[in-house]
Design brief:
38% of the residues lie in helices and 10% in strands. By secondary structure, it is an alpha/beta fold. The protein has a five-stranded parallel β-sheet, sandwiched between helices. It is globular and about 60 Å long.
Amino acid sequence: MNNDRAKVVVLLSGGLDSTTLLYHHLKHGDEVRCISFNYGQRHGRELEAATRIAHLLNLPHQIVNLTELRRLLSGSSQTDSSIPVPEGKYDEETMKITVVPNRNMILLALSIGYAVANKMDYVSYAAHSGDHAIYPDCREEFAAGMDRVARLCDWHPVSLLRPFVKLTKANIVSYGKGLGVPYELTWSCYKGGEAHCGRCGTCIERREAFYLAQVEDPTVYHPSAPSIQDLIKNDWHLPP
C-alpha cells in the first residue's frame, strides 16, 4: 500500500483471524468496509460476532445471503449437518472434511464486485500460514490468480491482500493483543452452540494459538471441554 488512505473491503467472518485483520487495517488508517457471508454454515454464530464487532467500530457492514450454497456445496461438515464436525487437532484427513468446495473463490469474487461497485482499492482476507497446507483456495497460486483476475475484471482495478499469509495463528493472536482486539467477541467453534465446544478442530487451534502466544484466552468454553493441561499432555488431541 502507498501512504494514501487505502480503501479496503475486509472479509469479516467474525473469527479470530479476520477480526485481527480488521484492526490491522484500522491501525494503518485505512477506510474500511466489512463484508460477511451467510452460506448456510452450521456455525452461524460467527455472523453474530461479525455484526457485533462492526457495530462496535461503527463500520459499514454488509451480510450477503448465500444460504442456497448449502445445497450446491455439499460434502463439508460446515454446511451438511449429517457430517460430524471433527474433534481434536486437525490432521490432513479431518481438515479436509471441513472444506467447503471453492468457497474462497465464490466469496472473494463477490467481495471484489462489492469493492468495484464502491470504488474501493483492495479486498483483504485473513488466510495465514496454517491454512494453505490443506485448503486449496488458500494456496499462493490461487491467491495470485485471484489477484490477477481482480485487476482485470473491471475498468476499476482491485487488488487482493493477504497480510497474514506468513504468520501462524499464534503470531496473529500476539499481534492482535497489541492492537487491542476484543477476542472475547469473536467466534471460532464450528459446532455453533451457546459456548465454544473446546473440542472441535477450530476450538483446538484457537486454544493452542492463545497458549503459544502466551496471551490469556478470554473464550467461554462448554463445561465438557477438556482442560488445556489435558490437551497439551495428549499432544493437543482429546484425552481418552
